[in-house]
Design a protein that fits this description.
Layout lengths: L1 H16 L8 H5 L2 E7 L5 E8 L1 H14 L9 E6 L8 E3 L1
Antiparallel strand pairs: 1-2, 1-3, 3-4
């Protein structure tokens, strides 16, 4: 019986921290490290930086657009590339 409790505890900890096999869950994605890429109206890509969390990525992209004087109605976009131990862009998000 103690082995089952230990196994459940380990699974709970792995889920909480987004460790494999739970690294694709919505919670793990929201809290991952991201590379932020900004795209201007002409489609040119600019690496903005690295952030922790998907909301921080969105905020950083908007901040970068404001620094460039890009109005909200200007056709710019951004991509948040989720980083893993082995990949610089495991998945793309906005």
């Amino acid at each position: 019986m103690p082995q089952i409790a230990l196994l459940l505890l380990l699974v709970g900890v792995a889920y909480y921290f987004g460790w494999w096999p739970f690294d694709e869950t919505a919670r793990a994605v929201q809290n991952a490290e991201f590379n932020v890429y900004f795209y201007d109206a002409d489609g040119r890509q600019q690496f903005v930086g690295e952030v922790a969390g998907l909301e921080a990525c969105r905020t950083e992209a908007r901040h970068y657009a404001r620094q460039l004087g890009q109005a909200e109605e200007t056709r710019w976009s951004y991509v948040c590339c989720r980083k893993t131990r082995t990949e610089r862009c495991a998945s793309k998000h906005q």
